[in-house]
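Input chain follows. Return C-alpha cells only.
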Amino acid sequence: MRRIGIHQVIYLLAVFSSVGVCFGQDQANATVEKGQTLLDVIIAGGLISILIWSMLFVVSAAALLLAVYCVHLMSRRYFNPSDLVETISELVKTKKWREAAETCQEFESIFSEAMEAILLNAAKGEEVASEAASKAITQRTRSISRQIGTLQMCANIAPMLGLLGTVTGMVSAFMGLGTAVGAEKASVLAISIAQALYTTTAGLLIAVPAIAVAHFCRNKLEHRTTELVQEVEETSEPIWKTIRKKKHADQD
C-alpha cells in the first residue's frame, strides 16, 4: 500500500474540519439558553466539535485509569514488602536458601523476583546471580516506566486537542460573523468563542493533574528502585559470605 504523505494528511484534515464547521454553523448561531448543558455546547459546535470532545473524553478516561494504576504501582508492597524482606533475610542468614527461594515464588513483588534470581543462580557465582537479579529489576521497572510514559503522553495530547477545538471554534466564529446581521454578530462571536474555549479548559483540566501524577510517579519510581537495590544487596550479602568461606575452606 502506498504511504500517505504529510501534505495529503493535512489536506484531508483541513477538508474534514471545514465540513465539520459548516455542519455546526447553524447551531452555533443559536442563542445560548439558560441551563444549557455541556452536551448542548458540544452538539452546537458541530461534527468536528463532537469528534474533538469524544477524543478528550477518551484521553481523560485513559489518563484517570493510568494515574490510579501508576500510583498503585508505587506502593512499597509492589516493590519490597517489609514483612517479605524480613522473612527472606532471616532464611538467608540461617542458610535456608531453598526455603527462601520457595517463599519468593509465593509472593509477587520485584524484591521477591530479584532474590529468587540470586538464590537460583548463587551456585554460578556472585557476578552471574547479581546480573540475573539486575535483569529482573530492570524488566519490572521498565514496564512501570512505560505506564508512566503513557500517562505523560495523555497529558501532552489533551491540551493539543483543546487547542484544536479552540482553532476550529474560532473558524466557526468568523464564519458565523459572515452570515450574521447587525446585533447578532456580537452574540454569534461570543457564543462561538465560548464554545472554543471550553475545549481548551477541558484539555488543561486533564493535562495538569496528569503531568503532576506522572512527575510524582517518576520520582517515586527512582526512590523505590534505589531502596530496592539496597535491600537486595543487604539481604544477599550473607549468601556471598558463605560461598567465599566455603571457597577458602576448599582451597585450604
